Input
Amino acid sequence: MEFDKVAKAYRKTDMFGAAEAKDPETVVIMVMEELIKAVSSFHKNISLKSGDLITRSKTFSRSISVIYMLQSSLDLEKGGQLASDLFRIYEYLRIHLIKDLRTGSVNKSSIALNSIVDIKEAWLSLASD
Output
C-alpha cells in the first residue's frame, strides 16, 4: 500500500487526523473506520420511504470516495496477491453499494462491510504488535 498517497488524499478531505498520523498503520485504520462509519450510515438511511435522503446521498458519496482512496493506494505490483485481494474486496463493496442505492435496500454490501470490519481488526492487531 502506498501510504503517502493515502495521507495526501486525506489532506484533501475533512479527515485531518489521519493526514497527521505518523505511522501507516494508523492511517489505514482511520481510513477503514471512516469507511465503516459511512457505509453503516448509508445502510441506516437507504430506505426511500423512511431514510434521510440527504444523509443517504452524502454517506454514499463518502463511501465511494473512501473506497477509491483505498483502491488507488494499493501497489498491485509490489503487493502481490494480498493487494489484488484487497482491491477485489473494495470493488465488491463499491459495486454492491451502487446496486443497493438503486434498489433502496441493503443486500450484498453488508457482506462486504463485514469483510472491511475484519480487515480493520487485522490492521489493529498488526499495529498493536
